[in-house]
Amino acid sequence: MRLISGIQPSGNITLGNYLGAVKNFVKLQNSDKLTDFLVFIADLHAITVPQDKTELRKNIKSLVALYLACGLDPEKVKIFIQSEVPAHTMLGWVLQCNGYIGELERMTQYKDKKERQVAGVSVGLLTYPSLMAADILLYDANLVPVGVDQKQHLELTRDLAIRFNSRYQDTFVVPEPYIPEAGAKIMSLIDPTKKMSKSDPNPKAYISLLDDINVVKKKIKSAVTDSDGFVKYDVENKPGISNLLTIMSCVTNTSIKELEEKYKDSNYATFKEDVANAVALELTPIQAKYNEIINSKMIDEVLDAGRDYANYLANKKIAKIYNKIGLGRKR
Ligand code: AQP
Predict the structure, then answer these.
(1) E strand map for 87-136
(2) How far, CA to CA in Å, does 134 sit from each of 84, 139, 173, 232, 323?
């Protein structure tokens, strides 16, 4: 079984990216059903909205160090940068030519991000899901571990694979999403009806994995909740408290039921204090490891090996795809 997933270096990854994606990667890397696990830095996706050149480079390096600091083992997982494997863009174009504008315009992420653009909406923001489909289909991945916000893009990927297979005969494996039971959608700390995002203009909305531990605690203690005064999981009526319960449940491996029972007589200050300490306990060793790795040679070594392996698989596949379509000369 082959797995693939990626994260955009559009800022420092958040507790949402960690609980919805990276923590899951770390668990999955030990599966005995695994033949390959590829995890990439989706820098081409990041430029669908404007990025500062220096920041982008910094975020790419930082994301690799965070993958490793969170526990990804380069012996088990090949880590690479998307733009260093040209076949992603080559297949992205092919899939754009097999997708329909209407199906891309229906994507929720496109509609949300479009609203936030002040300097014009790039074509790439619309066609982003075709490139994401290419990232996955290029490797014949069976499973894609993602947070719930990416489910719609995964469904489009499946549609494109099925369409292409019926037009040009079986070419692609039709992938399945792998969404964690808990933590698949961590919400903003200042508006718990909105997803936590690393590109949120207000840093109080998210916890970055690299935030100073005192800042992490402060952000949790000032998270928006409600005025009911009791700890209960009820996403509809108590989204803030429910979000904190989810976070606590994920970082302590305790069920929401047990947490509700434990905090049934507690006030919000006590509950938030415990959530803050639990998150701090999870992030402290990650930050220590990150500081060890960020300036080491390990980053380039891991990326070189990942790039070579990904190009080896991707080049073989893109040649087959071009042959199926009749592009260029037969190879
Ligand atoms: N709030 C979240 N809760 C759980 N999982 C999440 N993911 C993102 N936000 C949450 C998962 O993280 C992975 C990487 O996402 P991405 O960087 O490729 O794009 P995204 O989903 O658009 O993430 P962000 O943080 O919201 O980035 P920006 O702000 O740049 O758009 C995916 O598996 C995603 O599901």
Answers:
(1) none
(2) 14, 9, 12, 42, 17
- Nearest Cα residue to 150 out of 279, 253, 4: 4
Q: Is 113 a catalytic residue?
A: yes
Pick from 197, 210, 235, 246 the residue to mutate for probing ligand 1's pocket: most ligand atoms within 8 Å of its CB. 197
**What secondary structure does DSSP assign to 231-286, as a single string?**
---BTTTBHHHHHHHHHHHHHHT--HHHHHHHTTT--HHHHHHHHHHHHHHHHHHH
Q: Which single residue is written with the structure tokens 């982008």? A: 56
Give the model confidence (pLDDT) of 77-91 as tens digits.
999 999 999 999 999
Residue type for position 55? E
- Token pair 């590109």 is found at 199
For the Cβ of 44 lying below 6 angstroms from any atom of ligand 1, the answer is no
Q: Which amino acid is at 75?
A: E
Domain coordinates in residue numbering, the chain: 2-179+297-325, 203-292
Classify domain 2-179+297-325 by CATH number: 3.40.50.620
Burial state string for 24-33 with b = 16 or more CB within 10 A and e = fewer than 16 = bbbebbeeee
User: Is 195 among the catalytic positions?
Assistant: yes
Lowest mean pLDDT among 43-47, 113-117, 271-275: 113-117
**Shortest-distance atom of ligand 1 to CA 8:** 17
Q: Which of 4, 5, 12, 17 to mutate to test the pocket of ligand 1 (most atoms within 8 A of CB)?
A: 17
Render pLDDT for 151-191 as a digit per residue (tens, 0 to 9).
999 999 999 999 999 999 999 999 999 998 888 899 999 99
For residue 11, which atom of ligand 1 is closest to its CA? 30
Task: Determine the distance separating the centroid of ligand 1 and the alpha carbon of 166, expressed in angstroms.
Answer: 31
Distance, in Å, from the CA atom of 126 to the CA atom of 132, rounded to the nearest integer, reads 12
What is 203-292's CATH topology? Tyrosyl-Transfer RNA Synthetase (1.10.240)
Which H/E stretch holds residue 26? helix 23-28
Are the beta carbons of 248 and 254 closer than 8 angstroms?
yes
